[in-house]
Structure formats: C-alpha cells, structure tokens
Amino acid sequence: MTVRLDGVGLTHPGGFQALHDIDLSINQGERVAIIGPSGAGKTSLLRLLGTGLAPSTGQLHLLGVDPATLKGQALRRLRARIGLIHQSPPLPPRQRVVTAVLAGRLGQWSLLRSLISLCYPLDSAGARAALEPLDLQDKLFARCDQLSGGQLQRVGIARVLYQRADLLLADEPVSAMDPVLADHTLNVLGKVAAERQISLVASLHAVDLALRHFPRIIGLRAGRVLFDLPAERVSQAELDQLYSNDSFNEPVFADPVSAIAAASLEAPRRCT
Amino acid sequence: MKRQFEALIWVALLLAAVVASFSWLKLDFVALFAGDGLQQMHSYAASFFPPDTSTNWLRQIFHGSLETLAISAIGTLLAALAGAALSLLAAGRLGTVAKLLARLLLNALRSIPELVWAALMVLAAGLGPFAGTLALALHTAGVLGRLFAEALENAPPGPTRALREAGAGPVAAFCYGTLPGVLAQWLSYTLYRWENNIRMAAVLGFVGAGGLGQMLYVTLSLFQQPRAASVILAMLVMVLLVDALSAWLRRRWG
C-alpha cells in the first residue's frame, strides 16, 4: 500500500475545514486522477500526501510510514521519496534550468555536493535526460524567467522526474499547456509511473484528460470524496453532480449589453 | 479671521527663533563679505593653483589613492559578509530571540556614523588604514544587514518550501531556493555602499585613519595648498572612476 488515509480531516489555521473524514487507499503502481470543482480540496489533499501539511484528524500512511511520527533525518528521507509537481512551479526566476532540475535530488545529495553543484552543475547529463522526454532539452542552460508558463511547468515536472521519487504527486501539472502538449506530458508521466511501478496521483481540471490517462478517478467535492470509480464507470450523471453549482442557477444574461446594464443597476454609485 | 491670526503668530515665532539662533551662534555673514573678506577668499583659493604635479608628490598620491581604495573595498567586503550573516538572523530565519537581538545590533551599528566609529577605532587600533577599514566595516555592516534582511523578507517562500518538502536540508534549500532571488539585489546594494564608502574613506583620513584624507589633512594643516589641490583632484577622479565601474557592474549583474 503506497498511500492510506483513515478518517483524515484537515482544518486550515484560519478555521476553514478543507477536508472531511477521508478514507482512501492507493496501491503500488496505481494511477489516480483527482477531479472536482475549484476549492474542493484537491490541492490540500495533495499537499497532505506530499507532507507539506499534516492532517488535523485521522491517520495518514505514506510508503508504509506515518509521517507524523517522523522527525529530522527520517522525515527528510521519506520526503526525498515523494515528488510533488506544483501547479505554478516554485522556481527562482534567475536560476538556470539545469540547476532547477538538479535541485530535485537535494534530498539525496550531501550538502557539500549540493553546494558544488550550485556553482558548477555536476550532472547536466542527468538533467538533460529528465528534460528530453518533455522536449525541453534545448533549454538546459536558459534562465527560468526566459521560459513561458507551459515550459516552466515542464521544468517543474523534469525536476520531479530527476528526483526519482517512489510516489509521484501532481497538482494540475498541465494547466498552462496547450491540449496536445498536455496530452503528451500526461503520457510521459504515466509511462514513467508504469515503468518504475510507482503510484501517480494527479489533480486535473480537464475531465477528458483525467478519463483518458488515468484508470481510477476520485471525485472530490467540498472536502469529501463524492465517488471513487474506475474511469470507464464514471458517468455523466456523476460528473454533473460533481460540478453542479447552486450559485450559478440564477438567470444568465444572453447578451453582454443587458448584463452590463443590469450590473450598473445593481451597483449604484455614490457621489461624495 | 481667527486662522489668519494664528498663522501670523506662528510666522512671528519662527522669525524670532531664526534671529535668536543667528545671534546666539554669532553668525556674522556681514563680516564675511565686508572689508577685505572677499579679497582674502580670493587669494586663499588662488593659492591652490597650480596644483603640485611633481613626480614625487604624484607617486605619494598614487599610494594614498590605493590605500583609500583598499580601505573602502575591504571595509565594504567585510561589511557585506557580516551583514549577510546578521541579515539571516534579522530576517527571523533562526528564531524570534535571535531576530530581535540581531535587529538591535544592526540598529546600533548603523546609528553610529562612520566618523565616530573611526575616532573610536583610532583609539582601539591606532592611527592608520586598519582603523579606517574597521570603521567603514562596522557602520556599513549595520546598513547592509538591514537592507539584506529586507530583501530576504520580501523573497517568496515557495521555492525553498518546495525543496524542503522534497527532502532537502535547510542550508541546501536556502541556497537553491532563496539565494538566487536575493543575490543580485545583495550585490547591487553592496556596490552602491562601496561607492558611498570610497567617498567616506577619503574623509576618514581627517581623524587619522589613513589614505588620501590623511594627506589632505596634513597638507592643509601645513598650508601646502598646491599639494592639497592635487589630492582633491585625485579624490575627484577616483570617485568618478569607482562610480562608473560600480554602475557598469550593477547594470551587468543587477
């Protein structure tokens, strides 16, 4: 069992409860997509799996251990085995792509090696190999602030591929890419997970991509698991229920002119 | 009507304060320009020309310039290193107690001017360039530490946090996640302070801290105006050169 959650709830410091009583288990080598409306708790769930957040209630097991019981070196060793791809890649704008990718293995390298590699990249061949399947190898020595949003997202993915984690997590990994590139990138992630027999958990906005690339789909709504089904059994009714939004059930204006007129009626201006 | 009256009272009070200050400080501008005052000014200014350009004196000036340059460069370098170390504490990276103590220390270093530090260091380390270097390093460490800490506080926490969550140690995560964002800013601040310090290093000589300033002080005291004139010219040239060099470096790396 790669991931197991027993009655996990998460309350943010502000008091907002992002996740309620989630039971979930993901086996070694399974590929799972998490879908759901904005604010459903997808990112919170992934940050929980990436040990960035700790559950407020319930029990979490990652790669066979409970991260809450770990400290110091042991926690770092677990974290080095978990790779989280962020939606907006947290890369310093002035850093070169090669350094940003090599930073994926900081959890495995000694401090001395990390610092030497910061001045002179020790494994640019490895970084190039991580960028190659994403078709970005010619940007190896470019600076991160010279890249587009989609390219930056792929650099973030290359870093996690270079990390060679045992659990792959991805938070909206293709949100800044065009449909063809998004398709290709999810293929690469799926292939890596299949080759190395590791689990892949990704949150996605595009339902069609999720259904096409992931055998198992989890629908998350308002911090609860609405459904957890094989992709071929996810029906339109379930998707409608997942994405239905009560606050949009008001009359929708057909033409923009009347919408603007209505808006100015609703928001009376005060002259002082 | 009442407001106008109030304003009138304030203006009268200000005028009274200005007049009182003049008479208390015995500032007599009339005497400055009356009689042969202008004549004397003119003859003193004229005594600076032509500047002394004898080879021997130029050689001494060259040495003095090198000394001033070295004082300012080493002083700024030491300040940048100390400032970087203190800024980590002052930005709260190592706890709240360390943060408060470091801020207190930075404020103390910064609020004592270079000239006062120089006077103190001359007492501690004796006359000469060492005292000047220490004085510059101490004051500038306070300035740079504060600026560096602000840059650190404004740096986005995301990159470092992401690396920590991928198992990186705190030092490595800082070097890969935060340092690339702040380093250019730190460098630019340091170069700017170096420009200031080279001007300051020229002045510090007046309290005996070596370099061109000391030569200027000695020549002026001995009424050797032509020699003083060439020292002043040398200062001017050096400041212009360093300003240009530093501006070029900042454009390149900033």
TrEMBL record, chain A:
Cellular location(s): Cell inner membrane
Keyword annotations: ATP-binding, Cell inner membrane, Cell membrane, Membrane, Nucleotide-binding, Translocase, Transport
Matching Gene3D superfamilies: P-loop containing nucleotide triphosphate hydrolases
Protein's UniProt keywords contain Acetylation: no
GO cellular component: plasma membrane
Lineage: Bacteria, Pseudomonadati, Pseudomonadota, Gammaproteobacteria, Pseudomonadales
Membrane topology: Peripheral membrane protein
Name assigned to this protein: Phosphonate ABC transporter ATP-binding protein
Residue ranges constituting the ABC transporter domain according to the UniProt record: 3-247
Primary localization: membrane
Domain of life: Bacteria
GO molecular function, one term: ABC-type phosphonate transporter activity
Automatic annotation (TrEMBL), chain B:
Coiled-coil ranges (or none): none
Residue intervals of the ABC transmembrane type-1 domain: 65-246
Principal place of residence: membrane
Membrane topology: Multi-pass membrane protein
Alphabetical list of CDD domains matching this protein: TM_PBP2 (cd06261)
GO CC annotation terms, alphabetical: plasma membrane
Keywords: Cell membrane, Membrane, Transmembrane, Transmembrane helix, Transport
Record-linked InterPro entries: MetI-like (IPR000515), MetI-like_sf (IPR035906), PhnE/PtxC (IPR005769)
Subcellular location: Cell membrane
Gene Ontology molecular function, alphabetical: ABC-type phosphonate transporter activity
Transmembrane regions: 7-25, 69-94, 115-148, 168-189, 201-223, 229-249
Assigned protein family: Belongs to the binding-protein-dependent transport system permease family.
Name of the featured protein: Phosphonate ABC transporter, permease protein PhnE
Protein source organism: Halopseudomonas bauzanensis
Lineage: Bacteria, Pseudomonadati, Pseudomonadota, Gammaproteobacteria, Pseudomonadales
